[in-house]
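Blackboard transcription, Thursday session:
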Amino acid sequence: DSGVTQTPKHLITATGQRVTLRCSPRSGDLSVYWYQQSLDQGLQFLIQYYNGEERAKGNILERFSAQQFPDLHSELNLSSLELGDSALYFCASSSLADPEPFFGQGTRLTVV
Amino acid sequence: AQTVTQSQPEMSVQEAETVTLSCTYDTSESNYYLFWYKQPPSRQMILVIRQEAYKQQNATENRFSVNFQKAAKSFSLKISDSQLGDTAMYFCAFDDYKLSFGAGTTVTVRA
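(Written on the board underneath:)
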């Protein structure tokens, strides 16, 4: 157990819908990263937050948004879902003292 | 823009043998971290080993070791005494202010 908690583990939803994925980082970690991994693909960096502020942005679609709250948990919002958004979404967290990002188990999103 | 390249899509190794995975990266930064992650069929991302760019000594974790060549921007992973449980996808990752991953190398350990 990496200490990073992602909920839900699985999510099935219809095209056009909106979903929210939640991530609780390890205790004390201020950085949160979000990644998308499609079937048999690598990890695509979406966005990173540090202590509530957006720190880096990758190839995140305009239909996607994220935020990090004062208690440091983070949410990734996906709207107007398309079939191609079906993927495994990972959250990872790290700290200055422990800079290696630790990953949650991921949320498997299926859009039907 | 930083890039991470893993040139070997697939590698196969006999149990107890050694396999080396290659990784190159591109950056203009001098301080950064490099990682190797393992992703078994369960899809969990597991940190294998980490290297700080300012350290000349190559990192080692049990059967896993790296060959870090900063000038060449190369960061290879050696798995010694391969075990069946090492079968997984291995990702090289580069971190200066964001964590970027290579495309991955699938490693299959044969009995």
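Lecturer's comment: The longest strand of chain A covers residues 87-94.
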